[in-house]
Amino acid sequence: MKVGIDMGTAQGGAPATLDIEELLATRLLVQGNSGSGKSHLLRRLLEQSAPWVQQCIIDPEGDFVTLSDKFGHVVVEGERTDAELIGIATRIRQHRVSCVLSLEGLEVEQQMRAAGIFLNAMFDADRDYWYPVLVVVDEAQMFAPSVAGDVSEEARKVSLGAMTNLMCRGRKRGLAGVIATQRLAKLAKNVAAEASNFLMGRTFLDIDMARAADLLGMDRRQAEMFRDLKRGSFVALGPALSRRPLPVTIGPVETSARSTSPKLMPLPEAPQDVEDLIFTPDPEEFTRPIVRRVAPQPRPTTDILAELSRARPEPASLEPARPAAPEIPAEEREALQDQVLAEILDNPGAAFRADAELFQDFLVRCRIRRVPGAPLSLPAFRRKMAVARSGVDAETAGTELWATALELSRAVTEDLQGVFLLVAQAAVRGLPCPSDVMIARAYGTHSARRARRLLGYFEEQGLIVVHSDLAGLRIVAFPDLGCETQPGDANGPDLTETLRPAAE
Question: Which domains does the chain have, with CATH numbers?
């Protein structure tokens, strides 16, 4: 039976549907920094799927116990003996009852041990009770850490072994893992690698953004988009969600967590006897034990040496300041920047370098050339790079048709604008359609297969129409421009250099 649940709204306003049956076979990984909306996403998933599948939630903060009031989940407190946890987990599978294992109030090591024992007991259930169960683990980096922490090795092995069984071998036993983590870098790789569905939320550290982009099959130049995601917004990918990265916004929930995010509220009006309230001691204070302040520990020698080795700020120079570079017309300044950009593109490997790396190279070259004025921002540099990679000549760049093409290119993301403009300039100039190798080069990859997918994406967006002539050569038409490319061989060679303007 195929059941699709509504997770919210996808890009374009369409409903974001998650296939529960497919999820049970392929598992799900949710990632996002604190405050990105992970718990809200999990609650939406649990509420929507509660009528269709048995659920087990490993809840380190006790946030999901409120599901019991509306959906009948049994709350299992983690402060129990090993034998009690094993017995409860076994009966949970036998009677197909949804539950919340609340670990609130336990130390981290106790939480890891209780969760490991409970999950292992569910994993070891008799074959007769291998019914499908959605196992949701919040703060999964706590139970499957990538490196050993301050907990005992025995507790770490129990917890990590249970999480590995859940994600690697749980499918045949009916256990479908849904794990949520604040940082992918802190989650054991063998646990994260078993998920085939992903919902990636807001994150800021470069290592987490790069790993999220790798898991989604995205180019690393697109990783910075994870910084800009709003709370409750995620990028979805996987057989149960979407075949290509899809931005989604999670819908509202029916229940709420016991703990909420802090909200600003005005201070109460100060009473007139506020000094008496503060300075008059409570009679019970004299009966409480006095806690002596412990003398601070001496600073470690390594900290002192590290502080001494830091660079000192240079004293202000007594030499007169160098006069600022004279201002030049904007057209001349832009021409200098174009020359610097042309030098960078002349390097054969420039097409396959990250935009951030090219941007740093561009800024250094501008300083060497003493290009006056404020430096370009990274978005402005990417835009200029996209136009340069298209190979448009000066004559075409001055036409109204090309100005329309530039406006149309803003409908796609920054990393795709170079590809769009490459094909658009061929249509405007009446040139043959670029080959897959040329399109892949404009995108910064060697994959011709990805180039064909990019054309398919543009066609889905209604920007182009791809068709063939009688000889089977590819033609790309631009309805909004009223022009199309000449027939071109999709498997042809890389002719990028021939598209470069003669001035370069």
Answer: 4-250 (3.40.50.300), 330-499 (no CATH)
